[in-house]
Write a structure and sequence with these properties.
- The protein is mainly β and about 300 residues long.
- The chain has a single domain, classed as Lipovitellin-phosvitin complex, beta-sheet shell regions.
- It is about 10% helix and about 45% strand.
- It contains 4 helices and 12 strands.
- The chain has helices at about 5-10, 125, 225-230, 290-300; strands at about 45-60, 60-80, 85-100, 110, 130-140, 145-150, 175-185, 190-205, 210-220, 240-245, 250-260, 270-280.
- The longest helix has 12 residues, at about 290-300.
- It is globular.
- About 30% of the residues are buried.
- Residues about 1-30, about 155-160 and about 290-303 have low confidence and may be disordered.
Length: about 300
């Protein structure tokens, strides 16, 4: 696992938030609920994101441990909302505080709020802070209709879903649903393989207007090459999401992974990947509507 890969993982995106104080009447757990995302034109939705990763790699008797801790503020600045609930917004990382350490080396830190210049290896991360990374159109079920990305090296090529997709129909507690994905991985021989995966979701409970959903990812394509497994294991996260049924947004989520692969670079090699990813919605700030207009100008083509 390279330092560059860890930096990419550390600023990749997700969703969550605080519940609104005013709510409609609480549905009983036995009653089906309709899970839909809801947006308002001009609003800015922010999340506090924390990503912790520890990668221990052993090759031919040499072991290296890389630890990365990232705290950031992610924002969706809503530009417009259609009558059917489809919303267009700008995805921005407003700030980032990163700590990166390789065993036997001095720790490197970067805080976009206090550091005028990024240390070596963090330049692409610094360029991705405070600017629109993508312009996304999302329907009310969480399906990405369009996504225009800014060409920055710090952005992952396969970002995947920007939020969890919701089922079409109202569902009751215990209901499960799933969505297929396909990812590309490269083996040690340089051959690109297309791997099918399946995201599984289950509605665990609905209490005080908050739906708790379990999330897991399963690799469907049989994989026997440890080199491919070492890349795919980053997808095998599992955890829970808390969704505000009335407000129509994710309140919080926590995803975890603890997996080891042996033989990814020959018989005497192994990689152990441990990560925890959490998000929490933040209160709205004054002046958000003005920021939306400024951000839109940054992405608009020059005359």
């Amino acid at each position: 696992m390279t330092k560059k890969c860890l930096l990419v993982l550390a600023i990749a995106a997700g969703v969550c938030g605080w519940p609104d104080s005013g709510r409609a009447a609480e549905p009983q757990q036995s009653e089906p609920v309709l899970l839909r995302y809801k947006f308002k034109p001009g609003e800015t939705i922010r999340w506090e994101v924390t990503h912790r990763a520890r990668v221990r790699t052993s090759v031919s008797g040499t072991t290296q441990t890389v630890e990365t801790v990232t705290a950031s503020t992610k924002a969706w600045r809503v530009l417009e909302v259609q009558p059917d609930g489809t919303a267009t917004f700008l995805h921005i990382v407003e700030n980032v505080d990163m700590r990166h350490q390789i065993s036997g080396c001095q720790e490197v830190r970067y805080n976009s709020r206090t550091d005028k210049q990024a240390p070596l290896g963090f330049e692409d991360v610094a360029k991705a802070v405070g600017v629109p990374l993508s312009r996304v159109t999302l329907d009310c079920r969480g399906k990405v209709i369009t996504r225009d990305r800014k060409p920055l090296k710090a952005l992952a090529q396969n970002e995947g879903d920007i939020t969890i997709p919701m089922p079409e129909e109202p569902i009751a507690v215990g209901h499960t649903w799933s969505f297929p994905h396909e990812v590309e991985v490269v083996g040690n021989n340089g051959v690109i393989s297309r791997i099918k995966t399946l995201q599984r979701f289950k509605l665990l409970s609905v209490q005080t207007g908050v739906a708790t959903i379990s999330v897991s990812t399963q690799v469907l394509t049989p994989v026997s090459d440890p080199a491919l497994e070492s890349q795919l294991m980053q997808l095998a996260t599992s955890g829970t999401v808390r969704f505000d049924v009335d407000a129509g947004r994710i309140l919080s989520q926590q995803m975890e992974l603890d997996k080891q692969v042996v033989g990814f670079r020959g018989p005497a090699s192994s990689v152990h990947y441990v990560t925890r990813f959490t998000e929490q919605l933040l209160p709205a700030s004054p002046g958000d509507r003005q920021q939306v207009q400024l951000s839109y100008t940054q992405l608009a083509p020059k005359p």
